[in-house]
Design goal:
The structure holds three protein chains of three kinds. By secondary structure, chain A is mainly alpha-helical. Chain A has 17 helices and six strands. Chain A is 66% helix and 5% strand. In chain A, a hairpin with a 2-residue loop joins strand 4 and strand 5. The longest helix of chain A is centred in the first third of the chain and has 25 residues. Chain A starts with a helix and ends in an 8-residue tail after the last helix. By secondary structure, chain B is an alpha/beta fold. Chain B folds into two domains: 214 residues, Rossmann fold (3-Layer(aba) Sandwich); 134 residues, 3-Layer(aba) Sandwich (Rossmann fold). In chain B, 38% of the residues lie in helices and 18% in strands. Chain B contains 13 helices and 17 strands. In chain B, strand 11, helix 9 and strand 12 form a beta-alpha-beta unit. The longest helix of chain B is centred in the first third of the chain and has 20 residues. The relative contact order of chain C is 0.20. Chain C has one domain: ABC transporter involved in vitamin B12 uptake, BtuC, CATH 1.10.3470. The radius of gyration of chain C is 23 Å and the shape is globular. In chain C, strand 1 and strand 2 form a beta hairpin. Chain C is built from 15 helices and four strands. Helices cover 65% and strands 6% of the residues of chain C. Chain C is mostly helical. The chains are: A mainly alpha, B alpha/beta, C mainly alpha. Chains A and B meet through helix 1, helix 2, strand 4, strand 5 and helix 7 of A and helix 1, helix 2, strand 2, helix 3 and helix 4 of B. Chain B: InterPro entries: BCAA_transport (IPR051010), Leu-bd (IPR028081), Peripla_BP_I (IPR028082), TAT_signal (IPR006311). Chain B: Belongs to the leucine-binding protein family. Chain B: This is ABC transporter substrate-binding protein. Chain B: Keywords: Amino-acid transport, Signal, Transport. Chain B: It comes from Pacificispira spongiicola.
């Protein structure tokens, strides 16, 4: 570990902290500065960071990580129903239960590697989803999703006023507390839930960074590079991979728990294979094995899902109102294929473009830009040749 | 080894800064308005949350068409549609309470999470005062819960589960669409007169909450006319091929198959049941029959020829001849070139009912609107005289019993209305066991 | 919920025995299994020869199904005349529609429309071959050396694009594709194999589907077994690097292999359309399942894929029986995955997998 490396890490952490703190302001012009989406950004960021600990370091591609997210959500909501609306016990239980669940599944699935491992994790997640949707309904409330009700016991909390549903809080600070501030001509919403989740993400990111740089992380990278060779040297890799799997399961459970904290509902779809696939896509899209990539990937996918799907034809007409009428109609009819009900198409095209032109994901593109800028300053040919090798690790 | 030089002091400083940022929002309150998203400008924003991807995307598209039509009519564009036949004459076609009606749209993906995220965007970013739409009960209940917490009104779209206005009812949520109990109550007499009272029924049920409530409702009402329930078999959602569930029916001694499926499940299970020759069978000396309790024209289109002669129920059908239905079919048909679906109808009506309630209440405050809707009686919206019951926010109106048409005249003309069952026959007590367990609570204006 | 298990039938027919029920469920399983096997066959072929994880394979199945939809739409293109007397409910003149095929060719036209599903095989083969070749040449080729993760991302992106295009064109609702009139009835399968008549009757089209699948799978095996091309492909599956070193032009063969895999998936889709009304999401519904089939069968093993497809199909059928569900509630929801876990734990490389394939 060089000095330069740790300097880079420092910049990275500061960058993440700043991005989280200024999130509501930076993202406002892009239409993404409202609490729910900001919360989703950081929560799915945690999910993807955790997934990257397993996939980026060990190369084990789990296709069932959504199961841990779902289990985390269910645990958290049950805590809200039974114990208290305070998010601390909920988050703790979410992490514990999902950790235990990951231990169980990891213990079995890690007996195999490669695609066989992927299919084993997928199978466990799909079983969890199918059962949660149907026969486990008494625990999960099936299709509708587990919700908090007025009549729940909540033994630690004082009784709530008649008819109103209690709000999740951190020692009295309501998760949905929002301050509207007018800033630079924009209406900025500073939301408590977002900052709590954001703070947790920063901690999660920092822990992951330390993990990547630790001897344990080195060992995991060795497993990725050549597990056989490692086994020949007498090292048993299973405990290492299992630890990584459990840690990453706990991250997923934490994300699931936070989803429930910001919005106390846990639905079975959270465990479906498409949800597991989503975190895989987030990580690869951003750049597997890089520190910042997964967070970026999570942000991009959630942005498309929430913002692009919301455009409709009349809004597009407004957007392109500066064009002459006939051109406006044409542009709107073409672009409406890609927004609103066509947002999936945009996402699909984006996946293809990025993976074709930026093999290392978004971080690769970012690094190339940085190199390009530096190369431009120094007029230094050597740095360009190394561009492909350097990642933001 | 590790030389990570982000020292403690630096971290502490950062943490302090973060803490200050964190504490700041609690000092300020959200805003000074009396209720969530009180419209202050010249516009009022409604949120249309419909499935645009997934199995119900076509239904969602039809809902969106209906909403756009409703907005036009409210703003005084077009021919006014049902505003001309609606018994309440408060709406003048100049917006609502003098404000122009604007709308935002979103994709529920028929997933609770996505639907809630979409609704939250409408509330938090776009300032919607009312959320409406959806094409499944799971989503409706999830979004209804959210609207209750956020302090906006939820006008449910297509949701048929008893739970929406039963154990999961909410003070801020309202449903115009009928429910599984009503389907059973409306269908039973028709089934009795067509198939007799000595029948053995076999249920195939989609294995999730909506399927269960419908199975319970239909079994109860068919048993009341003397039918015997031979078996209730649960099938996984999206099973695709139902052959393994259909073959046992042949040997079960049952002479009626009841398909508690919707969407693709219904299309596939019905198609395959016909493929397995069930309708050509004679069992117990009677012709074997299939019943699809919840019909939709879009689904009937998906099942094609196979719907012929199959009984079911719907909330509304475009061939109805009352003034309200005719007016709506006319404006919709002229705008889009084909008749509206029942999903489109219920969404259109819900929008007008909301607007009318706001107009009568003189406010967009959810509590004012809830008060105006509770116990509201109206007519001219296609289902005859209708009551929005105060106890559970469910509409009580005529229910249609339909049958797959033998000789359709067009691709839209797939169902014929067999009976328009009067509202009294499908009305139940608010504390009926199938709807028990929930509480409406108090309306929440948010803020 | 305890389902009734007693079977009572009216006096005219003999009571169905346990054997008949068993046989019917086997038939159900074989039918489903045929579809699984055909999709998995192409998938495993692509794995084995090209080393590519193709997440767009389900989409190819879906495209096949839509070949029959497209042909049907084309054949039933209608001449639209506006009625002078009748009006629609919304006040525009009623459209009188007559299919061109019928208007021009009379009975023959009607026959062609009736047989449109089997006839679309003729369209599906060249079309899917073209799709496969274009996909391989234009996209997949550049991903041979890339990590599996990136192959997944790009093919998944492609799958989304394909299904969204279909959705934009044909809508999201399922589109019914009736089987030809002559094949819609029931066939007495029991009598055909020497049992009492009337006990094991099965839809004719499903028997056709099974036979069709058997023929297609047989043809693929024969092709790989008895042609030079097949020999090279099989050698490539066993040891790709060595075959490359021998100086054999592998590129061209890879392209064709991909094309064949696409055709097999497409044909599976075409003929399945009367059983499952095609909709744009069909591919995603089958994607995960076909991966499970491939892995259970053993990565890169063609007989394994077929065996696993049939096995999982049959087990799925049995798990859905009331007698089984009474003992294990919800077993039909998870049986496929449960079997996958058990098999993978018992046999590390699936039923017939070989060492070293797709493990790095």
């Amino acid at each position: 570990m060089t000095v330069e490396q740790s300097k880079k890490d420092k910049i990275m952490v500061i960058g993440v902290v700043l991005a989280v703190l200024l999130g509501p302001i930076i993202l406002n012009p892009f239409g993404a500065g409202y609490p729910d989406l900001l919360q989703k950004f950081v929560i799915y960021g945690i999910f993807a960071i955790g997934f990257n600990i397993l996939f980026g370091l060990t190369g084990y591609l789990s296709f069932g990580h959504a199961a841990f997210l779902g289990v985390g959500s269910y645990s958290a909501v049950w805590m809200f129903k039974l114990l208290s609306m305070n998010i601390v016990p909920a988050i703790i239980l979410a992490m514990v239960i999902s950790g235990l669940f990951a231990l169980l599944i990891g213990f079995i699935a890690l007996r195999r590697s490669g695609i066989y491992f992927s299919i084993l994790t997928l199978a466990f997640a799909q079983m969890s989803y199918n059962l949660a949707y149907s026969v486990l309904t008494p625990i999960t409330n099936g299709e509708t999703g587990l919700q908090i009700l007025h009549g729940d016991p909540r033994v630690l909390d004082a009784a709530v006023e008649d008819g109103a549903l209690p709000v999740t809080n951190l020692f009295g600070l309501n998760m949905n507390a929002t301050a509207d501030v007018s800033l630079l001509g924009m209406d900025i919403q500073f939301n408590a839930g977002y900052y709590i989740c954001g703070l947790i993400m920063i901690v999660a990111f920092y822990i992951a960074l330390r993990l990547f740089r630790s001897p344990f992380g080195m060992m995991l990278k060795a497993i990725k590079t050549n597990q056989n060779r490692l086994n020949f040297t007498g090292v048993n890799s299973r405990p290492y991979t299992l630890t990584a799997f459990v840690i990453s399961g706990i991250y997923a459970g934490l994300a699931g728990g936070l989803l429930a904290c910001t919005d106390p509902l846990a639905g079975a779809e959270r465990m479906q294979w498409t949800a597991s696939g989503e975190v895989v896509l987030m990580t690869i899209l951003g750049g597997a094995g890089t520190m910042l990539g997964p967070i970026l990937g999570a942000g991009v996918i959630k942005y498309f899902e929430n913002i692009f799907s919301a455009y409709n034809e009349s809004e597009l007409m407004d957007v392109f109102s500066f064009l002459p009428h006939w051109l406006q109609e044409l542009v709107v009819s073409v672009s409406s294929l890609f927004v609103g009900e066509g947002w999936h198409l945009t996402l699909g095209v984006l996946f293809m473009l990025i993976v074709i032109f930026l093999p290392g994901g978004l971080m690769e593109g970012f690094n190339r830009l940085v190199k390009l800028a530096r190369g431009g300053y120094r007029k230094d040919g050597a740095s360009a040749s190394a561009a492909g090798k350097v990642t933001a690790e | 080894m590790i030389n990570f030089r982000l020292d403690r002091r630096g971290l502490l400083k950062g943490g302090l800064a973060a803490g200050t940022m964190l504490a700041a929002p609690t000092i300020l309150t959200r805003s000074a308005s009396a209720y969530t998203n009180e419209p202050t400008g010249s516009n009022v924003v409604l949120g249309f949350n419909v499935p645009q991807s997934g199995a119900y995307a076509d239904e969602g598209a039809d809902e969106l068409r209906a909403y756009q039509l409703a907005v036009q009519h409210l703003n005084g564009e077009g021919d006014g549609g049902m505003l001309n036949t609606f018994s309440s004459k408060e709406l003048q076609g100049n917006g609502v309470l003098g404000k122009k009606v604007d709308y935002v749209t979103g994709d529920t993906q028929t997933k609770s999470d996505a639907a809630r995220a979409s609704a939250k965007r409408m509330i938090e970013r776009d300032g919607a005062v009312m959320i409406t739409g959806g094409s499944s009960s799971g989503v409706a209940i999830a979004v209804q819960g959210l609207c209750q917490e956020a302090g906006v009104i939820f006008m449910a779209g297509l949701t048929h589960s008893n739970d929406t206005t039963g154990k999961d009812k909410k003070a801020n949520g309202f449903r115009h669409f009928f429910n599984a109990y009503m389907s059973g109550a409306a269908l039973a007499p028709v089934l009795k007169s067509n198939y007799g009272s000595d029948r053995k029924a076999y249920h195939l049920t989609a294995d999730y909450t909506w399927g269960w409530t419908q199975e319970e409702s239909i079994a109860a009402s068919t048993e009341a006319i003397g039918w015997e329930t031979v078996a209730k078999v649960r099938t996984p959602l999206g099973a695709g091929d139902f052959s393994q569930y259909i073959t046992p029916v042949l040997n079960s001694g049952a002479d009626v198959l009841i398909l508690n499926h919707y969407g693709r499940d219904m299309v596939n299970s019905l198609t395959q049941a016909v493929q397995f020759g069930l309708l050509d069978k004679m069992v117990n000396g009677k012709k074997f029959e299939v019943v699809v309790p919840l019909y939709s024209r879009l689904m009937a289109q998906g099942a094609g020829e196979n719907v012929k002669g199959i009984f079911g129920s719907t909330n509304w059908h475009w061939s109805l001849q009352d003034e309200g239905s005719k007016a709506f079919v006319k404006s919709f048909g002229q705008a889009y070139g084909f008749p509206p679906s029942q999903a489109a109808h219920t969404c259109y009506v819900q929008t007008l009912l909301y607007a009318d309630a706001a107009q009568r209440a003189g406010t967009f405050n959810p509590c004012g609107i809830a008060e105006a809707l509770e116990g509201f009686e109206f007519d001219g919206m296609g289902n005859g005289k209708t009551l929005y019951r105060a106890e559970d926010h469910q509409c009580f109106k005529n229910v249609l019993v339909v049958k797959g048409k033998d000789n359709p005249e067009s691709q839209f003309d797939l169902l014929e209305v067999v009976d328009e069952v009067p509202a009294e026959q499908v009305t139940y007590a608010p504390d009926h066991p199938m709807f028990a367990g929930g509480e409406l609570g108090a309306c929440n204006p948010g803020a | 919920m305890i389902p009734e298990t007693v079977s009572v039938r009216d006096g005219t027919q003999p009571g169905a025995g346990a054997m008949d029920v068993f046989l019917l469920q086997v038939l159900n399983g074989l039918d489903k299994g045929s579809a699984y096997a055909m999709i998995a066959l192409g998938l495993t072929l692509i794995f084995g020869t090209l080393g590519v994880v193709n997440f767009a394979h389900g989409a190819l199945f879906m495209l096949g199904a839509f070949c029959s939809v497209a042909l049907n739409k084309l054949l039933t293109l209608e001449k639209i005349a506006l009625s002078e007397t009748e009006m629609t409910a919304w006040g525009t003149p009623l459209e009188i529609r007559t299919p061109y095929a019928e208007a021009w060719f009379g009975d023959f036209g009607a026959w062609v429309i009736d047989w449109s599903v089997p006839l679309s095989i003729l369209i599906a083969i060249p079309f899917m071959l073209l799709v496969g070749i274009v996909m391989e040449r234009g996209l997949i080729r550049h991903f041979y050396k890339r990590p599996h993760a990136e192959q997944i991302l790009v093919t998944f992106g492609l799958a989304i694009v394909l299904q969204e295009i279909i959705k934009a064109w044909f809508g999201a609702n399922p589109i019914p594709q009736p089987a030809p009139e002559a094949l819609t009835g029931m066939m007495d399968f029991g009598a055909a194999i020497g049992m009492d008549a009337g006990n094991v009757v099965y839809p004719a089209w499903r028997l056709v589907y099974f036979l069709f699948a058997a023929a297609v799978i047989g043809a693929v095996f024969a092709f790989l077994q008895f042609t030079t091309f097949g020999m090279v492909v099989r050698a490539g599956m066993a040891d790709r690097e060595t075959v490359g070193l021998l100086g054999i032009n592998i590129d061209k063969r890879f392209t064709l292999t991909f094309g064949i895999a696409a055709v097999v998936a497409g044909l599976a889709g075409v003929m399945y359309s009367p059983i499952l009304s095609p909709n744009y999401h069909l591919g995603m519904d089958f994607l995960v399942l076909s991966f499970v089939v491939v892995v259970v069968g053993g990565m890169g093993s063609l007989p394994g894929a077929v065996a696993a497809g049939m096995l999982l199909g049959i087990l799925q059928s049995f798990a859905s029986m009331n007698e089984v569900k009474a003992i294990f509630p919800g077993i039909d929801q998870i049986i496929i995955y449960l079997v996958a876990v058990v098999i993978l734990l018992a046999r590390p490389r699936g039923l017939l997998g070989r060492k070293g394939v797709m493990e790095s």
